[in-house]
Amino acid sequence: MTASQSLYNLSFKPLGRHFHVSTDYVALNITGCDLEVYSVKENATQPICATVCPDPGITEMVAMHNCNGFGCCHVDVENDADTYQFKFVYGHNPKNTKAHSNQTSQLWDKISITTDRFQLSWDIGNQSACVACKSEHAGCGYNYNTGFISSPSGYRCFCHDGYTGNPYISHGCSSNNKGYNPTPSRADCTRQCGSIDVEFPFGLEEGCFAREEFHFNCTNTTSSPILLLRDLEVIALEVIGVNVDEGTINATIPDQQLANPTSDSGQNSLFSAYGLFLSIKWVAAKLSCAEAQHNRSGYACVSMNSKCVEVSAERVYAGYRCKCSDGFQGNPYIQSGCRDINECLQPNKCKEICHNTEGSFNCIECPRKTEYDPLNMQCTRIKQQTLLVGIIIGLSCGFGILLLSFSVVLLTRKWKRNVQRQLRKYYFQKNQGRLLETLISSDESANDKTKIFLLEELEKATNNFDPARIIGRGGHGMVYKGILSDQRVVAIKKSKVIEECEISQFINEVAVLSQIRHRNIVKLFGCCLETEVPLLVYDYVSNGSLSQVLHADPSDGCSLSWSDYLRIALETAGALSYLHSSASILIFHRDVKSRIYSWM
User: Fold this and answer.
1) Per the domain annotation, does 157 fall within a domain?
2) Where is coiled-coil annotated (predicted)?
3) Which of 76, 229, 573, 590 is close enough to 235 for a disulfide, judged by CB 3.0 to 4.6 Å?
4) pLDDT of 33-91, one tens digit each?
5) Are 586 and 440 part of one and the same domain?
6) Same domain, 232 and 263
């Protein structure tokens, strides 16, 4: 329009009588210098924007780029009317008008009105319900006028879930999967927009994407690509990242856009977006995995090592997408896109050798004489020095343990010997050993004839009092056969008990009896006082006791003649006579028994 025109009419009335048209959103950019813009409604005016041009040489392109009041202003139109009227007042600032009256810029000669954004919605009215919905996979829905009483203003056709296309023609709604092309028709596709990698099924150029919804617009090679959602309304999203394997797009909504996508951008949408900073789930088609695999020519999961994954958004089934199988990574939407993961490159997968296999891995032990080197991730030979050090350490530990054990045994034995020595010393004193030593030393003749034996000597003579050495048993004890170190054969009498009050008398008797020397009396060599009960050492009589001879069974071949009995009686009387009258110390024996005397 020219500067002389003061009113401007904008109408959205449809030409046909069977269509209802309403504005969803209208935004206008008005360019011109020194303007005031008013909205005219019911003969009332209201200012809505104004422009100034402090720079006399400003161009229309520069003014429209920012549209911030310098040569251009922005108008948002109400969406509840089908006609609009604007009034323009030119030259509201006389100073500026006079100063720039000689300028040649077009902004001083005309007013330009351009649409920044324009969106209409329409429906069909005044006809039988849904007669225009021709496709067999189409449905319809009514629109209602807003007001005190709502009434349907018309209806609109749409394709059923899982179908896209034109619902107003026969066979116009087709399966979503028919729109998916698993093979790009171009081989030289650009896959980079700024810092964003755009992998198939998405693309920046014709023939480089799998379906029209996956077309990205790269407006500037140094910026992020733009994704347009074209379902119920066009929404431009600035893409900041794409994860093909996880089926997500990270995007933001530019500040100048007023529209905010809901959780589902449309009934047949392939995208599910949330919030101003969006993590968008997307699917290849709104089909189940079984339905998608039925049509192999349009099946998206073309990589050999890929699998189909069914996706739901807000508990509503959204469709299917593709994912690399376990042990693989990459792009499942292209041939050989899923590549094997080398798990052996990941730390701590195996304690020893890691062997990578297709889609998995195995752990193998190192061979003998080798050890695993975690730095180089391989088996290396065990160093000889390490082996030698190990052997030395092992031998040292072994010898140390043996030495410690040997020391413990020696100390234990020494302790036991000390205990036995102290115990023998105690018994020696208890059994009046000092008294016997005094008696022996006071009698020169007894000194050569009486001996005090050590317990060690008698244990050695009897093989530690071996039961096999027992040659006699009695009510008061047992008699053992022993061989002394000087090869003398002796009989050692071990009594069971002796009264402590009789110890002194016993010592005196030992001192006296050891001095008796007679061929028919058993010789007493001495005693041992290092045990609880003293031990007596006699000369061993090889033919047994007199009692055994006198009471022998004639059938055993041992019989005595009368002359033998008389000789025994005569020699016994001689021995008693010696004790009573011939010994140095006279002994009167009142308990003579045949078992304790010998005959020769």
Assistant:
1) no
2) none
3) 229
4) 888 888 888 778 888 898 888 877 788 888 887 788 888 998 887 666 667 788 888 76
5) yes
6) yes
**Is residue 485 domain-shared with residue 443, that is, in the same domain?**
yes
Largest CA distance in the chain: 189
Both 570 and 446 in one domain: the answer is yes
Q: Token pair 């000889």 is at which residue?
A: 384
**49 and 100 both lie in a single domain:** yes
Residue where one domain finishes, among candidates 284, 319, 340: 340
The span from the CA of 525 to the CA of 539, in Å, is 7
d(CA 591, CA 58): 160
Surface-to-core class of residue 153, CB atoms within 10 Å of its CB (0-12 exposed, 13-18 middle, 19+ buried): middle
Mean pLDDT of 349-375: 78
Same domain membership, residue 317 and residue 193:
yes
Angle at 107 between CA 104 and CA 110, to 5 degrees: 105
The residue among 505, 523, 513 whose CA lies nearest residue 431 is: 505
Report how far residue 499's alpha carbon sits from residue 506's, in angstroms, rounded to the nearest whole number.
10
Residue 389 to residue 381: CA distance in whole angstroms: 15
- The span from the CA of 514 to the CA of 445, in Å, is 10
Tell whether 383 is covered by a domain.
no
- Helices 433-442 and 503-513: crossing angle in degrees, nearest 10, is 30
Please state, in angstroms and rounded to a whole number, the distance separating the CA atoms of residues 158 and 142: 11
Active site residue 24: no
Element (H, E) at 320: strand 316-324
Tokens 């049509």 correspond to what residue? 295
Residue 64: exposure state from Cβ atoms within 10 A (0-12, 13-18, ≥19) = middle
pLDDT digit string, tens, across residues 412-427: 989 988 888 898 889 8
Q: How far is CA 18 from CA 196, 429, 456, in A?
A: 47, 143, 138
Cβ(126)–Cβ(140) under 8 Å? no
pLDDT at 264: 44
CA dihedral 533, 537, 543, 545 (to 10 degrees): -40
Show the domain range for 206. 180-340
Share of the chain above pLDDT 90, in %: 11
- Same domain for 592 and 453, yes or no, is yes
When pLDDT is averaged across residues 226-233 and rounded to a whole number, the result is 54
Number of domains in the chain: 4
**Tokens representing 431?**
């059994």
Please check whether residues 224 and 98 belong to one and the same domain: no
* Nearest one of 55, 52, 48 to 77, comparing CA atoms: 48
* CATH code at position 469: 3.30.200.20
Q: SS3 helix, strand, coil % of the chain, rounded to 5?
A: 25, 30, 40
Q: Are 546 and 594 in contact (CB under 8 A)?
A: yes
Over the stretch 542-592, which tens digit does the pLDDT of each residue have? 777 777 777 777 776 667 788 888 888 888 888 888 888 877 677 776 667
Q: How far apart are CA 353 and CA 350, in angstroms?
A: 7
Position 119 pLDDT exceeds 50: yes
Has residue 352 been placed in a domain? no
Peptide linkage before 14 cis (omega within 30 of 0)? no
494 is in an annotated binding site: yes
Q: Is residue 286 within 8 Å of 318, Cβ to Cβ?
A: yes
Can you name the residues that pair with 152 across neighbouring β-strands?
Answer: 144
302 φψ region: left (φ > 0), alpha (ψ -120 to 50), beta (else): alpha
Is residue 222 a part of any domain in this protein?
yes
What span, in angstroms and rounded, lies between the C-alpha atoms of 62 and 51? 14
